[in-house]
Specification:
The structure holds 3 protein chains of 3 kinds.
Chain A lengths: L1 H21 L4 E7 L7 H20 L7 E7 L5 H14 L4 E4 L3 H13 L4 E3 L12 E3 L8 H11 L4 E7 L2 H16 L7 E6 L7 H9 L7 E6 L4 H11 L9 E3 L4 H4 L11 E4 L8 H14 L7 H20 L4 H8 L3 E3 L5 E4 L5 E10 L5 E11 L8 H4 L1 E4 L5 E5 L4 E2 L7
Parallel strand pairs in A: 1-2, 1-3, 3-4, 4-5, 6-7, 6-8, 8-9, 9-10
Antiparallel strand pairs in A: 10-13, 11-12, 12-13, 13-14, 15-16, 16-17
Helix pairs in contact in A: 2-11, 3-4, 11-12
Chain B lengths: L1 H7 L1 H20 L10 H26 L7 H29 L8 H13 L17 H25 L4 H20 L11 E2 L11 H28 L1 H11 L1 H6 L4 H27 L1 E2 L6 H14 L4 H19 L6 E2 L4 E2 L1 H19 L5 H8 L26
Antiparallel strand pairs in B: 1-2, 3-4
Helix pairs in contact in B: 2-8, 3-8, 3-11, 3-12, 3-13, 4-5, 4-6, 4-11, 6-11, 8-9, 8-11, 9-11, 12-13
Chain C lengths: L1 H19 L5 H6 L1 H6 L2 H12 L6 H9 L3 E4 L5 E6 L5 E4 L6 E5 L4 E3 L4 H15 L5 H13 L6 H8 L5 H18 L3 H11 L5 H7 L5 E7 L8 E5 L8 H10 L9 H10 L5 E2 L2 E2 L6 H13 L9 H9 L1 E7 L4 H50 L7 H18 L3 H26 L8 H23 L15 E3 L5 E3 H23 L1 H11 L1 H6 L4 H26 L6 H16 L4 H21 L4 H18 L15
Antiparallel strand pairs in C: 1-2, 1-5, 2-3, 3-4, 6-10, 7-10, 8-9, 11-12
Helix pairs in contact in C: 4-6, 5-6, 6-7, 7-9, 8-9, 9-10, 9-11, 10-16, 12-15, 16-20, 16-23, 16-24, 16-25, 17-18, 17-19, 17-23, 17-24, 18-23, 20-21, 20-23, 21-23, 24-25, 25-26
The chains are: A alpha/beta, B mainly alpha, C alpha+beta.
Chain lengths: 426, 409, 651
Amino acid sequence: MNFLKSTLAGSMVFATLATSALSAEDTIKVGVLHSLSGTMAISETTLKDTMLMLIDQQNAKGGLLGKQLEAVVVDPASDWPLFAEKARELLTVHDVDVIFGNWTSVSRKSVLPVIEELNGLLFYPVQYEGEESSKNVFYTGAAPNQQAIPATDYFLDELGVEKFALLGTDYVYPRTTNNILESYLKGKGIADDDIFVNYTPFGHSDWSKIVADVVALGADGKKVGVISTINGDANIGFYKELAAAGVSADDIPVVAFSVGEEELAGLDTSNLVGHLAAWNYFQSAESDANAEFIETWKAAMGDERVTNDPMEAHFIGFNMWVNAATEAGSTEVDAVRDAMYGQEYSNLTGGTAVMLPNHHLAKPVLIGEIQADGQFDIISQTEEVPGDAWTDFLPESAVLKSDWKDLGCGMYNTETKTCVQTLSNY
Amino acid sequence: MQRSFFAKNPSVLVFLALLAIFTLVVTVLSEGFGMGFISTSFIKTLGKTLCLCLIAVAMDLIWGFTGILSLGHFAFFGLGGYMIGMWLMYERTRLIVVESLSQAEIPPTSAEVVDAIGNQIFGVVGSSEFPLVWAFADSLFLQLALVVLVPGILALVFGWLAFRSRVTGVYLSILTQAMTLALALYLFQNDSGLRGNNGLSGLQNLPGVTASQDQVSLWFLWASAFALGVGYMIAAWVVSGKFGSVIRGIRDNEARVRFLGYSVETYKLAVFTLTACLAAIAGALYYPQAGIINPAEIAPIASIYLAVWVAIGGRGRLYGAVIGAAFVSLLSTWFTGGQAPDISLGFYTIKWVDWWLVLLGLSFVLVTLFAPKGMGGLVDLWTDRRVPNRHGADLGPDDGALREKEASE
Amino acid sequence: MRHLLIAIIATLLSCTGAFAQEGAIQPVLQNHQAAIVKSSRKTIAPAIDAIASSGVPQAQQVLEVWAAKNMWMRKSDGVFFIAEKAEDKTYRLTDFDTGQTIDGVLKADLKQIKPNSGIRAMIGTALVRFQLMDADKDKRQDALTSIERDPEAAHLAPLRASIDAEPDAGLKAQKQRLERLLTIGYDEDTQARVDAILEMSGDLGVDVRATLNPLMTTTRAVSAGDVPQGLNIAQVLVPGKEDFDTEAAYELLVKENLAAPRLSSGEMRAILAEHIDGGSIAGVPVAQMNTLENRSKAYASLAAEGKVPPLVTDETIQAALATHVFYDVYSEPSAEVTDAAQKALNDISVNVGMNQALDLTLDALSLASIYFLAAIGLAITFGVMGVINMAHGEFIMMGAYTGYVVQQIIPDHTISIIVAIPLAFAVTFAAGVAMERLVIRWLYNRPLETLLATFGISIALQQLAKNIFGTQARPLTAPGWLDGAWVINDVVSISYIRIAIFILAFIFLGVFLFIMKRTRLGLETRAVTQNPRMASSMGINKDKVNMLTFGLGSGIAGIAGVAIGLFAKVTSELGSDYIVQSFMTVVVGGVGNIWGTLAGATMIGFLQKGIEWLNPSNTLAAQTYMIIFIIIFIQFRPRGIVALKGRAAGD
């Protein structure tokens, strides 16, 4: 048995050696760490394809620093511990210069210790709950103040919502986001009784009671709004039940943070017209850059494919990395990191994204209404909002600040003027 | 006694020797040792595989020898991981917090230190209070004791309830599966106090240890190999004596053993608890290598895979379980890792990432149907042992017994 | 060049229009151009008011067009038009005032005005006065909906005036009801309000409660000495009693600037840090500041020196509380109204409570029927034949995907469902028979191995589904007549799709009983189950009976899949979501008896809804506790609710 195992081990080692010998030093390697199988595959495969498309485009333009880019794709299979293992493999066996990857928060937390230990560089493209800052990660997705807070403001100011139902799937992103929102709403004078919170499991399908609870909230005579951090498949049952209960967007508007073009593809949206989603990007954004991006994407992947927010995040992140490496004249992590600060790149919705010293982007916030064709009608677009790693609306994190450029610290306590820790909190 | 044990079970000695050689070879070839032929990430994979082998041995003991198909052993495995993970996280955070607070003008009170640790650990999931379950997290010794105690007591209580009311066979399997599901769902809740879906992370960083992961991964490989060796010996010792005969008797015909005057429930309970503890130790070694533990690890499917490994390896023989766990889990890694070359059929390209599970599922059906002895059966052909010829008749009362070969061990 | 020309002409036209025509709307729009383009609820009100009160006949049309997102602005000169998309991707503009049209305008030259739903609601409110008497019934309905959404005092008079002339009976009733509600909220005569409240009390409608509850809003206040006169006081509060603890009372005092705030430990620490003097604070060395006692001691010394404000102690808090009175005061000044409203709400809340219980029962029944439907196939294969089929969930999934595929081919939802149900049965029946022939029949005496082999099939099927259909959820849309819900009142309602599933579950119960009790197959199945050898000697083909029974169980699972897909989602993991619950339903109910399965499903459904009701904020907890309950339940009734007795029980 052990004989078998060691031969297997041996053959795997030699296989890896062989591949690394083949790809000699004349390419720059870019790691792509997205699940290609398992539950997250549907979302993450799209991002892998986006990366391959961006790398091809860059190579067609002549590569980077006179070398061609080479994508190293691995499959962490939606298995969180495997993310750490694959990240180590990318950094030590394949010697990649940068990694683009991850979707879920838990997978990011799994990868963090590894890339910090080995001083890797990760671009993380998905909206997340904040409360984290790593020297080795650039967060190109939205922080809560770039998605959740503006959407809540929209509810308060534009729709006049007075009573909130915060519905979420029971995991860290909804938990933290709802925590921040609860605290934010209380600061805006919304009473405790006017905030209803509910958590459901992944893939929940029995929504009748929850929808009934939400409708019953209207008995106070206050306008009710739903802020949904419901993840993935569970949205389908939720929206179906909403439609069945005859809840129209004019009576009880729902704003979702995890429902994009991809998710709506699994639904008949005719009953959902008018419900909202908040993102930094919608496919329906009107700009030449976006039209070109959609065109290349459809040409590469097929006409029925849609584009979404995390794809734009990768688009910006990748181009910024290319520019930073060009500026630094090397792909060495520390040099690139220094060159990243202040990098500007035009985003697809027609503004300019700027990389801040806290490793977040300044991006506009868009709010869209669902249309019958599964696309979003953009009805509100803000100026660029700078991403904030530590929310100002929770007492513990209000005093914290992240500034890797001047302070060299991701968790700087502005009250005691000390750096709490230089590693990230995973 | 010692002599006669090994003399009676020569396979144990062979196994231990092979395990030692394997560990030595891997160590010499590792990056941490300097040769660098085996990458650190692969060392970790091998270390984890050894832990999986240990829980497979436990599974074989409860299923292959006692006839209880438990679909809940990964719950114990996970609990073990959680217990050690709590200490690792607490201590690592404590060091950071103490360091950070010592920069302040006024020294912190002990309550402030605990609050700050709580804030660091639970701030991520939007809370800052320490739940009750973390009461002993500051003590390595107590938490190590809990690694065995918590799963052990859970197994004891659950087993006592289940065996006492004579839940057997398939019902017991479903019940254990329900237990796993309940535990996983419970841990998924943020209110459980173990960080919900995020679980405990950063476990690979041992607090206070400055050695690189190249070294640490080797230490864990050695520890896992040692644990597997000891676990294997314990299991072999349990099944070799009179105790072993009784539990095999329970497997083949529970009623008869009961009529012979044995307290069947006590035997079952003892084996169930022992295997739960073995599983927990395996888990406690596994998760610091994996780096993160979260409720998804405990999902019922994991325990079913465990049964699959043991069945493919060949149950009713301990080395079979080890072969099965090592072979299937490594193969799984290889196929899902994208290293397996795609096969082009001209009209369709088989990507193993997509088709591996189909292959595994079908091969599993085939093994159950045509090779109930699993891969361990190959060993029989190889050693070509002489066995009393019973003209193929089964030893047990059921058609499905098929355990003639074991009688000669 | 051409565009420029058109623009100039248009500008000229609009200008001349403005001067030439009396009552043109465009100048009003131009006055508020910035606000309209900005499209924010906070700044739009003057624009809407101006349009609505312009007295121009086009005002109604402008508001309607605007709300429908059909108003566009020409970028070159900022003039607003109605825009329609022409066939060649250009737009045709229509002037509001003159009705003149301009063809062939490019999208790039235009900007669509997109009012958000907050603004649309305001426009709706502004439109009420135009629409209440409109000839078009739909527009009158729109007006009423707007009033319902945002009731205003200003609506009361026009609404009353419009009631008598209303020709439509339904709308008339609705208008009368709204008039009552508006009377409660806004009538100037207190007695009229009280009368209206009495009239509406006991009504279950959410709108009634939504009208009454705002009357009951209170603010918590504090004052020194006695309760002030002339206020409509709801209750006087005593600190430390009921929900009002001393902590909250003191916070209120601090908030009203009637007392000094308490120091948190962090603040004390910060203050102490400011007073570090040569390595010690008030004589206590800094190194000793690591206990609370020492810190308090140092702070007390500082306070004694007058360097910091004195510490707020429990005694000072008690003293401050004793000299103040706390009370809740209604924002509604009339005590008669609040008393009547309180009484009406009490009546309603009893009624609502009972109806909520009824609603919960319906939800529980619905969940029970879904579990029953998912488990009924298993009740046959596991309960009757004793075969553990872990791939049962995947048969459910296959059924759901069959429904999806049929819907791709037949676009009509009604026909496609009618086709899908028998087809799903056929597909899963065939799959079940194939599985029985190829795998299960070799393992009849090895139940544990059946479990594992079928599990192998389960993961293979699940992955196959992923490979074929992808991991993304697929739409399976219910026919239109199943949309919506059966609304008994504002509290009790259940969606038609759930009713359909409930009925389906009962049909299957009937089918199952009929097959088992009344047909040859049922008789033979029971015979084979009870004693296979004897059955064989009686001339029953054991293999055939097993095959057909298994096929039947699988086929029913397929139909269940179509039903489950209709109300939830179709993914490759659909089956695994239901498999453990299905097994537990069968085991809890009692194996080998369909009534047991029914009882098991009912128990699990009611239990889950009950726990959800107790803990509404965490559905996951409900599932966890339900499973734990089941585990304990099985310990005490290992054979389930309906246990077979005697020989049929097997061993």
